[in-house]
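Quarterly update from the structural biology core.
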Amino acid sequence: MDRDAFLARVGKAAMSAALPEPPDVAGPDVAERPPEPGRDELVALFRRRALDVNAVAHGPVSRHGAAKVVAGVAAGHDAETFMAWDDLTAPGVDSALLASGLRRVDHLVPAEGRVEHQSGYRDLDIGVTGALAGLAESGSIVLSHGPGRPRMASLIAETHVALVDVATIAPTLAHWAAGRPEAATETANLVIVTGPSRTGDIEQQLNLGVHGPRHLHLVLIK
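Predicted structure, tokenized:
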């Protein structure tokens, strides 16, 4: 379609407040929809997009190798304390961090001494979580919180480490939501995290870690 014909169609549609039907361009040599990317392509795109938003991607590593990577991240940040989800998909993370000399901060708040317990969260160095999915288009992760999956681990720690199974990486949020329509109703807190916390409110300068973790590490598990 040439430029004049295109503009004529747009002008006619604007007058009638209706968009014209697209021309039928499908044929034997034209695919109706682009092919879905392969798993390796999704992982590579996810890694690139994560880097674009100041996150650090590790791996993919084996499920049993993830604990060593998490311990290495903690050592790199001189961490002394950590909080972790109860149902991490990789075994041995707690043991590796404890063996490295870190102290585990309990996410369960006692009935007595509540204020004193919660005040200790201010010094939390590392928060380790899982992830429902990774989103390749933006390098984001999807988190679902609930019993045994405290929000504090991904909100108040200086460094957030998320374990992401490469099998859960979807091309976009729309692709993931279409495949998991029940995800939003299964939890009261569904969060999409894109890189570390950031704000540009102060003199229009981008600052990391003002309202949440300053560092985000994504450990990809195959």
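The domain at 38-221 is CATH 3.40.50.10420 (Rossmann fold).
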